[in-house]
Amino acid sequence: MHTLHLDDVHEPGAGYVLEADGATSDPFAIGGDLWDGLRVDSLVVFYGQRSGIPIEEDLLGAGYGRAAGHVDVAPNGGDGDVACLPAGHATTAAGVDLYEGWTGGYALDVTGGWYDAGDQGKYVVNGGIAVAQLLGLYERALRTGTAGALGDGSLRVPESGDGVPDVLSEARWELEWMLRMVVPEGEPLAGLVHHKVSDERWVPLPMLPADDPQPRFLHRPSTAATLNLAAVAAQGSRLFAPHDAAFADRLLAAARAAYDAAQAHPVLLAPDTNTLENAGSGPYDDTDVDDDRLWAATELYLSTGEDRYAADLRANPYRLGGTAPAFRPEGFDWNHVAAWARLQLATVDSALPERALVRASVVDAADALVEAQATQPFGHPYVPTSGRYDWGSNGLLLNNLAVLAAAHEITGDDRYRDAVLGGVDYVFGRNALGVSYVTGYGTRDVRNQHSRWYAHQLDPALPHPPRGTVSGGPNSDCPDPVSAALAGSPAQCCFVDDVGAYGVNEMTINWNSALAWVAAYLAGLGDGRPSPAAEG
């Protein structure tokens, strides 16, 4: 393999090609604004995932309009009055009741929010990391002086023109829904947050959200979901304060209440509902909530500066010098959020006495990724210790790039910037299959991500996923019937661009939030000139 550097080429343009020994490269462009479009497109994907609102063609694009989903219009049961899952409805074939007899005698209005992935479910723990990264990319832009590119009118969303930065308006759509998922006062688990709302059973592909005939239920609350709300509500409170003080106050009050509720119920875990015959939703089970606790304490400390939350940070197993490692070669995700918490502590200004040590730990983690990156023929910093690629490997890789980008912000050392640029190339085609995993970007881009409404492969009247949608990527387990034929292949070859290949080719909000975070960072680099040394 040969690597070609064009560092000395500065003439902007598109359609460039390289020729060598009779072979011609794919066309490419040179310019200082190459990532600007992806910053927008990857964020507008979230508008297309909205529940409870009509999707307008003039915002998402021709052919992408659809009726509002789950708004109590037949055949929908809708999300305006959703009951708790009846007792016994989460019982396995072996007779095990996964919810131990839990149910509730109430119903909640849980309209709004984002559909999580290619199905109709809405999950707090995956919504949490996605919201955090949208809020985080804006907060980073404020620190680096690039927030103007993310202001009001920067995205194609219905709220444009209201004076609030559009990325915050998009995040608010999910935050408002998460606030609706809280167990009401007077109930046995009051203050905790329901883990998810979903169909009783899976619906087939294709299926538009407005056509979903399945009854909807609230699933049992969980400590993880409650801590997710505490974390993102606290983060949101400081970012919304200049734009909507009342909403900011509401968020901070909700964050404090959720944190206290999680303290009262420290280990109420979500079970693996995949063991049910037809679950109708992903489990998002997580047996370790100490990292979620670290994250919630982090955001509450950053927003309040209160000693209570700093003390909880210092007592957490994922603390500096603790028994659990915050950073993993496999990257962070919805169920491993300690690294994200560490990035926030390192980059958001605070009076934490240990902040310099936290920042040093991020740089150390980035150095390990740079070292691992140097061992890879395609130059990407994703090297799982098992040698096997995980579900959502592209999202995990992108989150490793966020660690490198944070090190660049902390140190001003451009070798971390270069590591991000080299690593992101994998997602856009420098990989074993030579494909771009982002719809609309690259010569051979993935277009059939697993989705019930972006299902053009199954129904030509439906569109492909919108421009800027990232696929989950290679998964060594090949867990779905379509990719199963690839089991045993080299890790990067465990992929197929097929709408039925949910294990390798699904779209999800947390992978797109990872892409959006990286795209915003790259767009903020401008023409890539050397960075001044960071201070602090």
Précis, in short:
Residues 458-477 are annotated as: Disordered. This protein is mostly helical. It is built from 14 helices and eleven strands.
Overview features:
about 525 residues, mainly alpha, Glycosyltransferase, five-stranded mixed beta sheet, two-stranded antiparallel ribbon, 14 helices, globular, Endoglucanase, cellulose degradation
State the helix count: 14
Number of strands: 11
Number of domains: 1
End-to-end C-alpha gap: 41 Å
C-alpha-based Rg, rounded: 22 Å
CATH T-level fold name? Glycosyltransferase
Helix content: 25-40%
The main β sheet shows up as: 5 strands, mixed
Low-confidence region ranges: none
**Residue share in β-strands:** 5-15%
SS-based class = mainly alpha
Q: What is the general shape?
A: globular
Order of helices and strands: EEEEHHEEEHHEEEEHHHHHHHHHH
Q: What does the average pLDDT come to?
A: 95
- CATH architecture label name: Alpha/alpha barrel
Oligomer: single chain
CATH C-level label = Mainly Alpha
Which strand order does the major sheet show?
Answer: 6-5-10-9-7
